Amino acid sequence: MFKDCALYFPLEKLPLKSAFPNGKSNGGLFRSATWFEYESGEGTVRLNLNHENLAEHLRGFRGYIAQLPDNGVARSEAQRLIQLTQAAVGVILPHPASPDSQLFASLMKLIKQFDGFMFVAGSILLPDGSFLIGPMANQSEISDSLPAPSIRSVNPEELRHSGHINEGDALRVSQRENNYLQLAERGFICARWLPLYRTEDHTNKLRPVEEIVARLLALEALFFWVAAPEDVTSSERLLAFVSRNMLRDHLTVEENDILSLQRTEANDTHASIIGWHLENMWALAWILGFEPPPPFFQGQLPQEITNSMLYEFLPDFDATVSGFQAGVTVRSIDEVTQLEDLYYCAHNAVRSAQSGKDTVPQEWHPVRDGGAIHERRHSLTWAVSPGIAWNDTDLST
């Protein structure tokens, strides 16, 4: 059952009488209608026309879509549909409706006839009856919220490390073989000769915590600059947050260019891809004590993780780097190194799959879901590579 929805159309003027000849409105010869009513067979439906500030509403809509965990293809298509929208219609139903009701059928008739879409239950419903994006799409084949790959039975003897081993590497070898085992149990197969260390001196070092905190908060500000509308977080407050904490020093040149765009332009041009930064943020937040850790076998992060990280773990935009840092519990270098090594191996399996090899679970998408692995691995490897710039992080496998 649903009681709230809205309809979106690529037409500025809707010939609603052609769909419901007996409908009525308050329009006249010299007056544009602000509402239209029709009888659905289950009561009168009122359509509220002429949204007061359509451009601002659509910017907020694009921001909502940008932070959804659905795959990039779905997000891009949703952004395209919103970009084409010329009319947003509010719907007042006589009572809650079920998907098999005449009420629902009448609304579907409208979006089919005028090539629109419906926004209901936080999701975009297309004229063919399928959900493109949002919580309701999680049960469709385009969703990336797939169940975790089932645990398989594997032979540990077949997962021994075959690469170079130095004297004193016994613990590292044991940890690596445990990673091979975890991956194989979930259907990920990586090379078993991968180097055991990412540093020449074989030491594990965590980047200064204040750099990790600043990078995380910089990405938080960038995400909200692109994805959130002005009435959620004002530009003035966001830019003051960035300036007060010198966060531009912790963004790449490309990211700073986005932050230098006008807010609306940043949303128009980057809303469809800014969600990838949430994957970077999940790994960085975990280093600083956020739970849960990002599992290697999960694709793009689910909405509940996004909400928990953005609105519960991360500070508001009146905070400081030092203030936030004082309240976090930084994980040990051993914990970070172990998860980084697991993602290093998972990344190898993903890259092999992207070249056509059968190295990830069948239900797993090597590009869409593999992109999440890449972004989380980037954060983890950067965190254990002190002195290395973000864009210079060695992501080879």
Strands of the widest sheet, in order across it, are 2-3-4-5-1-6-7-8
Q: Report the average pLDDT across residues.
A: 89
Class per helix and strand makeup: alpha+beta
Give the overall silhouette: elongated
Q: Say what oligomer this is.
A: single chain
Residue runs with pLDDT of under 50 for 5 or more positions? 139-146
In whole angstroms, the N-to-C terminal distance is: 49 Å
Let me know the number of strands.
Answer: 8
Share of helix among residues? 40-55%
Query: How many domains make up the coordinates?
Result: 2
Write the element-wise H/E pattern from the N-terminal end onward.
EHEEEHHEHEEEHHHHHHHHHH
The total of helices stands at 14
Rg measurement, Å? 25 Å
User: Strand content of the residues, in percent?
Assistant: 5-15%
How would you characterize the largest beta sheet? Answer: 8 strands, antiparallel
Verbal overview:
Pfam families: DUF4272. The chain is an alpha+beta fold. It has 2 domains: 5-139, no CATH class; 147-397, no CATH class. The chain is built from 14 helices and 8 strands. An 8-stranded antiparallel sheet has the order 2-3-4-5-1-6-7-8, sandwiched between helices. A hairpin with a 5-residue loop joins strand 7 and strand 8.
List keywords for this structure.
397 residues, alpha+beta, eight-stranded antiparallel beta sheet, 14 helices, 8 strands, 43% helix
Concise summary:
With 397 residues, this protein is α+β, with helices and mostly antiparallel strands. 43% of the residues lie in helices and 8% in strands.
